[in-house]
Amino acid sequence: MMNTSNRSVRLILAACFVLAPAWGQVFTMTREQLIKYTAKNPYARFEDGRPKVPDALLEKLKDMSSEEISLSRSGFPNQYVDGLQVLHPDKKLIGRALTLQLMPIRADIADVDAAEWKAQGNQRPRDHQNAIDLLQPGDVFVVDVFGSVAAGGIIGDNLAYYIMKTTGAGFVIDGAIRDMDGIRPLADLAGYFRASVPPAIHNVFVAGINIPVRIGNATVMPGDVVFGDSEGVSFIPPHLVQGIVDEAQVTHLHDEWTKRKFDEGKYKSTEVYSRPRDPALLKEYDDFLKEKLGPKAYEEYMKRPQPGPPQTPARR
Questions:
Q1: Is 303 left (phi over 0), alpha (psi -120 to 50) or beta?
Q2: How far out from the chain centre does Cα 172 lie?
């Protein structure tokens, strides 16, 4: 007999996701569900319902680093993943998540799924490339393959090249890739992965496309903004992006002013960093910030709750 806990889990899954006819037995979120679970998104959406954070805002992330994306302060403590290998540490990964969930092969499920897929008139078996075919410019291919290296390389150099040319961004794969000698020269591709192995993808099946997936300890929603640098990868809910960008602008100005004072050679570090204590220095800093931000932006910044001592930027 099924215990209460297992029954509850199945009921929750049934409530959260529906079977979309175009995908047979593969779970995918409907447009309505995506809108429901990303209701705080203030921006436009793709046809499938994924939030579409504007390109102009994504562009502003290029000057940022992982340390400036502090999602824990906004109530999202599990959105950063480290420990992945980085394809090109000097290249940032910035884009919107398109998610794929792969699971260990189970014949009775996979056979039913394959039969329905074929009955719909599809000649080619369904696999991870069906998700790759959905990629658009600015997308990041985010693959939950349960951290498995044994499942083989999810992509090789040919599909990596397709991702690069189609998205202009890259991929995050919680599993393996293959053909590293062919992928590494792709200088315009950013990528994060567990390992590089010779075998191609095997013993897995597609369980979900554009659904919540797990990458490391992070939960990733379709349309999340993916930000990766040499340290790791963050998955940012769309409604938090503008605030993060605004905060980073102040942090950059704070750093500029601090280093300028250090260059003068007249102050100990504690007199300037992280916040000047001397009233004259403090006024100089505030005047600098107001001039650079502009009066309106400065006023809005002063209204925002600040971590640590008042008006102290988060960066250390």
A1: alpha
A2: 8
Residue type, 77: P
Mean pLDDT of 60-71: 90
Q: How many whole angstroms separate alpha carbon 45 and alpha carbon 48?
A: 8
Q: What is the pLDDT of residues 100-133, one digit of tens each?
A: 999 999 999 888 888 888 898 988 888 999 999 9
Give the whole-angstrom CA distance, residue 85 versus residue 229.
11
Portion of the chain with pLDDT greater than 90, in percent = 72
Position 313 scores a pLDDT of 43
Q: What is the DSSP string of 31-76?
A: HHHHHHHTTT--SEE-TTS-EE--HHHHHHGGG--GGG--GGGGT-
Helix 241-263 vs helix 279-293: crossing angle, to nearest 10: 130
Annotated domain spans of the chain: 16-236, 241-303
Q: Residue 142 is inside which H or E element, if any?
A: strand 139-144
Distance CA 117, CA 28 (A): 15
Q: Parallel, antiparallel, or unpaired: how do β-strands 85-86 and 190-196 relate?
A: antiparallel
Q: Which two tokens stand for residue 245?
A: 């960008």
Query: Of 262, 247, 240, whose CA–CA distance to 300 is shortest?
Result: 247
Separation between Cα atoms, residue 116 and residue 55, nearest integer Å: 38
Average of per-residue pLDDT across 133-151 = 97
Rounded CA separation 119/281 (Å):
74
Q: What is the pLDDT of residues 257-312, one digit of tens each?
A: 999 999 999 999 999 998 898 999 999 999 999 899 888 888 888 877 654 443 44
Report the chain's mean pLDDT, rounded to a whole number.
Answer: 88
Among candidates 97, 289, 122, which has minimal Cα distance to 211? 97
| Single-letter residue type at 33 | Q
Show the CA angle centred on residue 217, arms to residues 185 and 37, nearest 5°. Answer: 100
Q: 16-236, what's its fold?
A: Glucose Oxidase; domain 1 (3.50.30)
CA 161 to centroid of chain Cα atoms: 20
